[in-house]
Design goal:
By secondary structure, the chain is mainly alpha-helical. The chain has helices spanning 4-35, 41-70, 77-86, 91-133, and strands at 140-142, 148-150. A hairpin with a 5-residue loop joins strand 1 (140-142) and strand 2 (148-150). The longest helix is centred in the C-terminal third of the chain and has 43 residues, at 91-133.
Length: 160
């Protein structure tokens, strides 16, 4: 049986993870807004903040896993759920865990959206470069990995 002190330690860890993950989600949403605009210093600063946030989440996850392991639970989702089930008065802990996992899912979705925005920007830049180099869409072939690449014929606008 898990004692109240162990349970409170775990509650604090999950609360910290929840707060840090909410902050990460806010950063991801800000990043998406900045990705819609031309690159700026703000985006670089936000990326640094995001990296720092991820490091804090990682530290909290280490504490989470260490506590689980010290109590004989596996340091994963199943171990966490087993810990919650064996905790006395586990309703608060279950609610906090559900909030945390929902935030993780939201972060994953937002990160995928941001990745799509980055890919779109890369495609637009590649297209603009192709136009400047004189490659038309019909002049493209596909490489072994499915990526498009220009053929060797060129209708360049000029050379610098």
């Amino acid at each position: 049986m898990i004692n109240p002190q162990q349970q409170m330690s775990f509650v604090r860890i999950v609360q910290t993870e929840t707060e840090l993950t909410q902050q990460l989600l806010n950063l991801l949403r800000q990043e998406f807004e900045l990705l819609k605009s031309p690159p700026s210093k703000k985006l670089e600063e936000l990326l640094a903040q995001k990296q720092q946030q991820l490091q804090q989440i990682e530290q909290s996850a280490i504490q989470h896993n260490q506590l689980l392991a010290s109590l004989g639970f596996t340091p994963d989702r199943k171990g966490t759920e087993a810990f919650i089930q064996q905790s006395p008065d586990n309703a608060q802990l279950q609610e906090q865990w559900n909030k945390f996992t929902s935030l993780l899912e939201a972060c994953q979705k937002q990160n995928e959206i941001n990745g799509g925005a980055v890919q779109l920007n890369q495609h637009q830049v590649a297209h603009a470069l192709d136009v400047l180099r004189g490659f038309a869409n019909s002049d493209k072939t596909y490489g072994p990995g499915g990526e498009s690449r220009p053929t060797s014929s060129s209708k360049s606008l000029g050379k610098a």
